[in-house]
Hints:
Layout: E1 2-10, E2 16-22, H1 24-36, E3 52-55, E4 63-74
Amino acid sequence: MKTANFQYKCRLCGEIFNDSCTSPGNAEIILICTVLGQQMPDKFFGTQPTMVTIHHGCKKGHGVADLIGYIVEEN
Length: 75
């Protein structure tokens, strides 16, 4: 089974990490809605990714992380 994992990059330590996932078929429209600041269509469920999040696992403290895209991975 494949999943699309949204990737964030921490501004403080540079680490890239996953924050949320969806199906590969839904990932592109969710990414477009997020980048354009629009609400996801009603047919999608779950929490919409944000453009910026907190990197709690940052090795240097708590970093600010930016959404940089998604990758499709085989589980």
